[in-house]
Amino acid sequence: MKTFRKLVYPYCVWLGIFVVVPMLMIMIYAFSQAGNDVTTLSFTFNNFAKFFDPVFINVFWKSIKIALITTILCILLGYPLAFIIANSNEKFRATLILLMTIPQWINMLIRTYSWIGILSEVGLLNNILSFLGLPTVSLLYTDFSVIIGMVYNFLPYMVLPIYTSLNKLDPNLINASYDLGANRVKTFQKVIFPLSIPGVMSGIIMVFLPAVSSFVIPKLLGGGQYMLIGSLIENQFITVGEWNFGSAISLIMAIIILISMYVLKKFDKDITEERGSKA
Question: What pTM was computed for the model?
């Protein structure tokens, strides 16, 4: 037992240096005025009040909208894909999972840049349309291009948790449903989907949270003028130099993310308890 405790110490040190200390610095900057030094810090809520300016609120709601659309599309695309993988041949299943995870081995920056080559005015898509004699389209630097980039990058985070839940299903439950006269559609509605909800909820958390705070994808596929909350935070730290306001936004987003995770977990727990009571 003592040996096990000693193995935890390096992790605690790492956690303190790279998580606790940065969070404390963000809190100090968020609640202090710009230009204060360590010896003359003054407590203020002005940085948080500034966030409620209509310009920044619009950026916030646009980020929520883009993240919600991305999450919904990932569910619509990811659930059927996870279902197909879970019900495929065991040898072929490993190949499908590998194909799903291989793109994640490549840096996100490179994966996102590839979509610029596909969606630009002289990109692959417009070249194909021109070859077919069809009119070209302007898709880059729009909501569409940002959503496409996010869905592409975050789809595996939806597929894998759902696949894990589906793969753990007891086949006897499905067979029992068929024996009781339920068809495939009814079995999916009453047995398969309810039992896979934990995977869906995990996928929602793993897609929505990074999507709402993403800044690389909106910056590259949305253009320099396309601003979401992640881009706004980066802009405050890197370009404007407003570390205090940037820290306040980061702290607000951290609180919103924690609340979102609590609500989703509570919702998942309530569904599980309700399903258990019915059983």
Answer: 0.85
